[in-house]
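FORM 12-B: Structure-to-Sequence Request
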């Protein structure tokens, strides 16, 4: 009986399918492949997949360089990892042999629900279904899934190859087996896992996003300049980036999207409040580093 329980308590993950090949999906594909898993990266457009493969390749080279510690770079590391990644434009066929399917598509509840309905239909009944959502309630996403025991959240951080944390989020219905398998997967890809209930922002974003918005209000009150707030948090609190640098790095559109969702769902929580300045920057298309300007301008930097 003990052996039977042990065998059933965890699944063996070999094939990982990742739906969505943006910044997060690419990063997840990269670390899964470099940790020895067979990966299928899925997106709707061929050009997007090609771009993702290019960025994975250059990130793998950065990792190889870092691992070499200044010595000879292991050139096989990038090519062997790349060889474990297939791409596909067809969700249903690409998830069919996956043991773990991680959805990293845009933060749109209807899109995610549609994807999970399709994924559940096309996947093996034992496959685990995970979402990398950073702000949507798992409870709402899983309305589209019949077997909710095999669904959970796996929340990664940007840049995925560098950040060591993985938040593993279970719902009331996630089975112990699903949960244990995801913890094991997290360790296998070299991440430290923390557990959190299905709550807004989980651990990191629940603390980090209100902190960033308060930094904007501090600047708007003219208590301190942006650069001084950034310097203060780097040198006085040991953060690698100050709040304005971090917001530009994450993307102001993403932050606005998350905060607007929280304000709508929890209007009475004083920690959740929109920022008129951030809204104005977003409406001007100043979304941070990716557009060359956000709180700071990056136009003259690399
Ligand atoms: N791929 C591979 N390696 C990378 C990389 C990438 N995409 N980005 C950075 N690195 C490596 C570099 O090669 C470098 O290695 P080295 O130490 O051997 O030189 C190392 O990471 C440091 O990079 P840099 O020297 O370029 O720059 P920094 O020292 O400033 O580090 C940083 C960059 C790791 C991004 C650091 O500034 C940092 O940790 N910033 C905070 C990031 C953060 O808070 N992320 C979480 C955001 S919240 C989130 O993601 C949740 C979402 O839901 C919104």
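FORM 12-B RESPONSE
SEQUENCE OUT:
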């Amino acid at each position: 009986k003990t052996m039977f329980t042990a065998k059933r308590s965890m699944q063996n993950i070999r094939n990982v399918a990742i739906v969505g090949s943006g910044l997060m999906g690419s990063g997840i594909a990269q670390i899964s492949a470099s940790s020895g898993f067979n990966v299928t990266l899925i997106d709707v457009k061929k050009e997007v997949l090609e771009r993702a493969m290019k960025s994975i390749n250059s990130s793998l080279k950065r990792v190889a360089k870092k691992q070499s510690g200044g010595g000879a770079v292991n050139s096989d590391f990038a090519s062997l990892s790349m060889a474990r990644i297939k791409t596909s434009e067809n969700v249903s066929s690409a998830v069919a042999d996956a043991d773990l399917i991680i959805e990293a598509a845009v933060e749109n509840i209807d899109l995610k629900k549609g994807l999970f309905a399709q994924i559940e239909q096309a996947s093996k009944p034992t496959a685990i279904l995970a979402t990398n959502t950073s702000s949507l309630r798992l409870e709402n996403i899983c309305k589209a899934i019949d077997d909710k025991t095999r669904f959970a959240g796996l929340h990664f951080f940007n840049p995925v190859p560098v950040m060591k944390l993985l938040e593993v989020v279970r719902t009331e219905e996630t089975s112990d087996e699903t949960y244990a398998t995801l913890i094991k997967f997290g360790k296998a890809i070299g991440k430290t896992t923390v557990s959190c209930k299905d709550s807004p922002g989980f651990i990191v974003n629940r603390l980090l996003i209100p902190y960033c918005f308060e930094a904007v209000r501090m600047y708007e009150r003219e208590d301190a300049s942006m650069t001084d707030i950034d310097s203060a948090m780097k040198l006085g609190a040991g953060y690698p980036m100050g709040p304005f640098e971090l917001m530009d790095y994450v993307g102001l559109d993403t932050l606005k999207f998350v905060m607007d969702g929280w304000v709508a769902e929890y209007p009475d929580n004083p920690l959740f409040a929109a920022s008129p300045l951030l809204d104005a920057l977003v409406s001007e298309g100043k979304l941070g580093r990716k557009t060359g300007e956000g709180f700071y301008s990056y136009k003259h930097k690399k």
